[in-house]
Amino acid sequence: MKRFWKNANFRLKAGIIMTAFFLFLGFVVYYFPHVDPFTYNTYRGKLPPSLEHPLGTTSMGQDVFWLLMEAIHNSLLIGLIVATIGTVVGVFVGLVAGFSGGVLDRVLMVVTDTFVVVPSLPILVLMTSLMKGSTTIIVMALVLGVFAWAWPSRQIRSLALSLKERDFIHTAWFSGEGTMQVVVTEILPYALTWSLSNFMNATLAAIASESSLAVLGLSPANLISLGNMIQWARERNAIFTRQWFWIGPPIVATVLLFIGLFLLITGYNDYLSMKRGR
Predict the structure, then answer these.
(1) CA dist 235 to 59, 194, 242, 269, Å?
(2) 155-193: per-residue pLDDT in tens?
(3) Residue 63, SS3?
(4) Which domains does the chain carry?
(5) I need a surface site. Which of 42, 86, 136, 203 has the fewest CB within 10 A?
């Protein structure tokens, strides 16, 4: 770790620190004992920031700080689930298609290309509308995950096509290894580095997609997320009533989270380029 931190560039270090901070808020502070922030009129409305309420309360009597912690937790959880689905499914489909070839490759690529060319936003709008404003985090993540695997699959297939002509793959074939064994033991290790980069990028894209749907009023109304928190504050005229501590924190948190993930992705890619150069 010391060697990694010493060789890491500034963007990678800044991205790690910022992302770790949000993970701490979303998966450590979130579990501190507190009242359900979604419940209305738990406290007096429009209270200013204080020791009891660090960011004050909303006009509906909700604690803004704990509402923000819940929003960060749920947004990160959605991003991580979608990134896991997109990376695992994309890598698996891409490796199998690229290494198998033939009819299986053509069938898988037709399905993949279909998901690539179909515009995701109208489908997501339709699917979230069918949920009728009520769903769970898992279901929302699955909806977003439907479109998260296609591009990774195309990219990893190209890697598989180039690797399967290498001598060590032919040696594995001649030693009696099956297709899945060769994919898992010989090719997958080469895809792990790329998979980590794609995982971080997919996390950012998933959070952005959910936030966009929420700001448009299309995210489930019972889901506390950064996008929904902004939407609720906008609906109740937080700007016109000068409730800056209600609408400001989710906007700042969203921007900083995006910057942190962006720095992490670009810094990590530069770090890998530096290692290859050595």
Answers:
(1) 11, 41, 13, 40
(2) 888 888 887 777 777 787 777 777 677 777 777 777 777
(3) strand
(4) 7-31+40-277 (1.10.3720.10)
(5) 136
